[in-house]
Structures are given as C-alpha cells and as structure tokens.
Amino acid sequence: MKPNKLEQQFRELLQNRTIEPSDKAWDRLDAMLSVAEKKKKPIRTWWFVAASLLILLSIGTFFFKAEKFSPTFHNKVVIDQPILETESKIERIVNHEKTTEIIPKKIEEKIVSTKKLTVSNDFSLKRANTTPNNEIAVQEEKVESKENSVEEVANKKYISAQSLLAQIENEKKISPTTTEPRKFESKIQIDANTLLTETETEMDESFKNRALNEFLNQYQNIKTAVSNRNKE
Amino acid sequence: MSKIIDLHKDEKTLIKQAVNNNRYAQQQIYTKYASKMLSVCRQYIKDIHKAEDVMITAFMKVFTNLQSYSHEGSFEGWIRRIMINECISFLRVQKKVHYTEEEYFFEENLDEINEQFSVEQIQILIDALPDGYRMVFNLYAIEGYKHQEISEMLGISEGTSKSQLSHARKLLQQQILILNRKENEAK
C-alpha cells in the first residue's frame, strides 16, 4: 500500500507549489501578535508584583509578631519614647493649664502602670518559663484599676501614655476600653525592679548597640518561636 | 557550502529573536514560509480565503509556541505540522468531514497511471474527493504519514484509515479515466 507512482507525482508537485497570500494577511497576523503581546505582559508583571508584595507582607508580619516575643528590648525602646513624650506633655500641660497636683501623680502612676502593663502583656505570650498565675493576676488587677481611674480623668488634649503605647504596639493586647476582664495565660515571672534597672541601663546604650541587640534577640526569638510552633 | 551554513545560522538567530517577540524577525519567518504553507492549507480546504484564515491562525500558534521548537528536524516540517493540525481542527469544527464507518478495504488492482498532470489538475482531482477520503489521501499520499499516525491525528481506527485511502484511490482513478476520455473526445 505504498504510495504509487501517481501519488508520488502528486506529492512532488504539491509539495513544491506555493500560493501567494493576500497583502492583508501579514497585517492581520501582525495585529494578532500585538494583541497577544499586550495580554502577556500585564498578567506576567502583575504576578511578579503580587508575589513580591506577598513576600514583603509575610516577612513584615512575621517580624511584627516576632517582636512580641522580645518584650525587654522592644518595650524598652518603645517605652522610652512614650514616657519621654508624656513627660514633656505633662510639663507643658502643667505649665499651660495649671492643673492640680492630682493629675500629674495619676499620670505618673499611669506611666508606671502602663509600663508594667505593657511588659506583662508581652510576656504573657508563649514562653518556656512557668509561674503561678496568681502573681500576674493580682498585678493585673492593680493595673486595671489604676488604668480605669486614670482614664476617667484623662483629658482629650493630650494623648495618654496608654493609648500611645497602644498605637505603637499591637492594639489587640492593650485596648483603651478595658472593662472586661483580661484573660492572660501568663506563665512568666515578672520582677518589676530588675526590669526598671534593665531599662535604665538600656537607655544608656547607643542606638547602634540597641539595634544590634534587638536584631540578635529577635533572631533568637524567631528560633524559639519556630521551635515552639507546635507546642500550642 | 558556507552559504548553507550561513543560512542555517541566520535562521537560528531569527528564531531566537522571534521568540523574544522581535516583530521584524517574525515577519522574516512569515515571508519565508507563508506561500508554501498557504499551499498546504489549500490542499485541505477548498476555499482559498478560508485556507488563508487557517494559515494565519496557524502562524499565530507557530509564534506563540516557538520556544518549544527544539531545532530537531526541519523548521519547515515543524511549521507544516502545525498547519495540518490547524486544518484538521478547522474541518472538524465545520463538521464537514465524515468518515464512513466501514472498515472493509480491498486490495487495489489499480492500473498504473503514467500520465503527467499539472498541479492545477491535481488540485482539481483532489478537490473532487469527499472530505474524509481527501483528508486521509492527503495525509498518506502527500504528507507520508502512516495509517497508525493518521488514526491518531484524526481520531479514527487504522482500519477506517486504510479503507478511506482505498476508496480515495479508486475514485481518483475513475476520475482520471473520465478526464482522459474527455480529453480524447476533445481531440
């Protein structure tokens, strides 16, 4: 059933034949190619943009969450600023508004309480050490009551230390409306004095050292976080 | 000898550029192969305008799939294969092609026809065939595919392919005889 002589003839002649396409043929093809190119590029570049954004976001949130595990350094850095700010603001307010003595005291209390509060908040997250819950609960109650009283006095004209810290840190942990009881699963032993002394020593360090230490600490904490990820 | 090598080199670089959407390179490739490919399409599709449409669509596929061309075998052969596939799809969509289901094929006792035909005559003869016969005849006799390959390309059995070819050949012979008779009568 091979191609016979006739078919071979057909084959030769047909294979060598050419038919000129119309003039418009290339223009049509050209147009189709342009359309195809336009479609390709946007989709591809958008994929790259989306992918890079995702990566950046994930890194960002990862670091952001990881900061929670490094309370000492983070808070120290953070606490410095609001304390300084509130102090300066208090000064201003005292000068301008001639407020009574009560308010500055309460504000001081608040600063201290918020400091303690923020520290306790962060430590409340997962760490290896365990502590009796009572200590923390008591402290928190104190803190809560202080906080509530101060808030009633709180003036609209200045940002309370509480909300300042809240702005800087994760809002979930510190909410200005703390009427409901908090449910911390804190297992960390907090020694306020040592924390304070640590804070003071930290303030003396240069920014460079702080940043370095913070980075190292975060790295350590990421490691522990990763290793502890299955423990919940 | 060096000229052939240069041409090959040029085509390789042309293809590379065309893969990168270099419109000039794409046009060069088109200009080189379009007329031959239109001839291929014309074998399968009787209407020249539709054949051109199919040719252009097939060239789009050539350029969009150009990166998958592995430089094994001839470039023309690769393009040609895309053309034929596009023709098959086109005709399938048109639902014009019917393959008679019979699988019976007969041994041909065709007389050897020794006449010479012109290309135009050949095209007329092939056009006159029913679609199914023509398709199989083209793939087997003109392109040189085997029945097993044809059955895969068209989605038919090998037996059907052989049957279609037999019928095609028989018909062609009859038509040539009629042609000859007419010519003799004209003389």
Report the mean per-residue pLDDT of chain B as an integer: 87
Oligomer: heterodimer
Q: Span from first to last CA of chain A?
A: 76 Å
Q: What is the approximate shape of chain A?
A: rod-shaped
Explain this structure to me?
The complex is a heterodimer of chains A (232) and B (187). Chain A is mainly α and 232 residues long. Chain A has helices at 5-16, 24-67, 71-97, 102-123, 133-153, 161-168, 192-204, 207-227. Mean pLDDT of chain A is 65; it is low at 73-80, 97-157 and 174-182. With 187 residues, chain B is mainly α. Chain B is 73% helix and 0% strand. Chain B has eight helices and no strands. Chain B has helices spanning 2-19, 23-44, 48-64, 75-94, 119-128, 131-142, 147-154, 158-186.
Q: What would you say about this model in short?
A:
The complex is a heterodimer of chains A (232) and B (187). Chain A has 232 residues and is mostly helical.
List keywords for this structure.
heterodimer, A: 232 residues, mainly alpha, B: 187 residues, globular
Chain-wise SSE layout:
The complex is a heterodimer of chains A (232) and B (187).
Chain A: H1 5-16, H2 24-67, H3 71-97, H4 102-123, H5 133-153, H6 161-168, H7 192-204, H8 207-227
Chain B: H1 2-19, H2 23-44, H3 48-64, H4 75-94, H5 119-128, H6 131-142, H7 147-154, H8 158-186
Helix pairs in contact in B: 1-2, 2-3, 2-4, 3-4, 6-8, 7-8
